[in-house]
Amino acid sequence: MQTPFRLAPSSGYVALALSGRMGSLSLVRSSAVGLVLIVVSLLSSCNGGSSTAGSCRTVLNCKDDAAPICDATSLACRTCQMGIDDVACRNRNPATPLCGPAGRCVGCMSNSDCTDLRAPVCGASKACGPCQRSSDCVSGICSADGSCAPASDVLYVNNKAVCSAAPRGSKDDPFCSIKDAVDAAVAMNKSYISVEATGTPYAALTVTATSTNGLRIVGSGAAAGAGVPVRSSGTDAALRVDATGSSSLKLTVSGLDLESVSGNAVECIGNAALSIEGSRLHNSLEGILVSACKLTVDGTRIYLNRRNGISLSNVSEYNIQNTMIWRNDVSGIALANSQGVLRFLTIYSNGTASGDRSPGIDCGSGNNLVEHSLVFSNISGLSPELINLQLVGCMTSGVLTNDSRNGTYRQMVPDFLSASGSDASRFDLRLKAESTGNGECCIDKVPQGTYINHDVDGNKRPQGAGYDIGAHEAR
Predict the structure, then answer these.
(1) What is residue 132's predicted lDDT score, i.e. its pLDDT?
(2) Are 305 and 281 in contact (CB under 8 A)?
(3) Which of 86, 204, 267, 344 is deepest in the core (most CB within 10 A)?
(4) How far is 360 from 350, CA to CA, in rounded Å?
């Protein structure tokens, strides 16, 4: 039995016949050259992701991401073709406007396809997402929330450039010194400074004021993990933050390599909030010397300083995580009258026989908590029980150490990529991923929780069933 249904003449169709209970739908269209009969199965027409001939009319009918395009000839959903189907991909879903190599529509093929500064990086899944490092951004500044700072909000420094008499601080007319850029940022209320690596170290820097919203100084263009060098040739600190007499001062530095011949790598005094990220502090008197400041250290390597890696006193507040500290002559971390968070640290081979503080982590009388850290083979002249001075005065949770009186005792040192040799600056205290011993002691040993989402190199945490102990997430 057929049930006729007539359409308005303006539609171009003159008849429609529905035959059977779930039979075929026939559309008859008049034309100057004849009649064209199109027979479509009702069931097939409802299945937009199918590759059956006649199953689609537009890309909107193709619901299966593996076959996103409606072929014009067969009217069947198919894979997309690179360089041909970008418009069809965009029409199907504006969030996936390009045809990718697997025949699927994707969000991007390169960073240049990611025009939203809030999601500037084309990831492995071919979707735009947050930046991870300064090199991900045209402006040279990756903000803490994963967005790229607009170039118009950034002042630029390049000490190899021929500076104009009155530089504007743009990429093509940069400042020659970081100090000039800081002064301009305060005057102009700018929040970002990008410092270009040139092979020539920058002069020591003292910061006594920042813009209203704080200031972020980022090293750009250095080799991976190296940092842009900032050097003091005398007793001044390579970086000194002095908030004496100031109501507040907020500074973040990242991607720098800080060293002072006769002074400290970093000093902070007064009512300042200082954050050090992804940097190297070495071959100075103290790595970091802090009095009364709020200190955050993340993703940083501190080594070969002639006293402590980090020394805090006078009611300092701290959050120190994802940091490797090794071969400092007195102590890895020395605390006095300070409080905060110590977690996911690797503290190795600090102290000498003449040291006057406990060589690993000296919590003083504060009984500070240390969590999920590796503290191994630090030595001292304070006691003949050298191996049992890895942590003193500390509470521990998930700490692995060869100190039999603190944390979880393990005699064998974790299997680091490189932890020996005459040049300690080249030590690599990342965990070997395929080491059986590391699998037993350190990898995936911290249960899933609300800890941190990255490691010393900025890589994702956790990678496996749990977090890895120490600064590095091996797998």
Answers:
(1) 81
(2) yes
(3) 344
(4) 6
CB 441, CB 344: distance < 8 Å: no
Decide: residue 118, CB within 10 A, 0-12 exposed, 13-18 middle, 19+ buried: middle
Q: Which domains does the chain have, with CATH numbers?
A: 1-35 (no CATH), 141-441 (2.160.20)
Q: Which of 313, 305, 244 is nearest to 272 (CA)?
A: 244
Euclidean distance between CA atoms 369 and 393, whole angstroms: 9
Exposure of 68 by Cβ count < 10 A (0-12 exposed, 13-18 middle, 19+ buried)?
buried
Residues 6+ apart with CB under 8 A from 278: 133, 227, 254, 255, 298, 299, 300, 458
Q: Measured between alpha carbons, how far is 268 from 280 in angstroms, rounded to an integer? A: 16
Strand partners, 275: 252, 296
Res 385: pLDDT: 54
Amino acid at site 115: T
What is the spatial distance between Cα 268 and Cα 273, in angstroms, rounded to a whole number? 9
What pLDDT was estimated at residue 120? 93
**Which amino acid is residue 328, in one-letter code?**
N
Q: With DSSP H G I counted as helix, E B as strand and the rest as coil, what are the percentages for the chain, rounded to 5?
A: 10, 35, 55
Q: Using CA of residue 136, residue 140, residue 144, residue 149, what is the dihedral sign?
A: negative
CA distance linking residue 83 with residue 218, whole number of Å: 38
The whole-number pLDDT of residue 103 equals 95
Please tell me the predicted confidence (pLDDT) of residue 50.
Answer: 52
Stretches in the chain below the pLDDT threshold 50: 1-49
Q: Output the CA–CA distances (angstroms, integers) from residue 271 to 54, 225, 434, 453, in the order listed.
A: 72, 30, 45, 29
pLDDT of residue 383: 55
Phi/psi region, residue 197 (left: phi>0; alpha: psi -120 to 50; beta: rest), is: beta
- pLDDT attached to residue 40: 34
* 58 three-class SS: coil
Q: Is the dihedral of CA 104, 109, 114, 120 positive or negative?
A: positive
Q: Please tell me the distance from the alpha carbon of residue 5 to that of residue 16, in angstroms, as a whole number.
A: 5
Model pTM score: 0.81
Token representation of residue 251: 């500074």
Q: Would you state the structure tokens that stand for residue 399, as one six-digit string?
A: 């700490």
Contact 102, 65 (CB under 8 A): no
Q: Tens digit of pLDDT for each residue in 56-78? A: 999 999 999 999 999 999 999 99
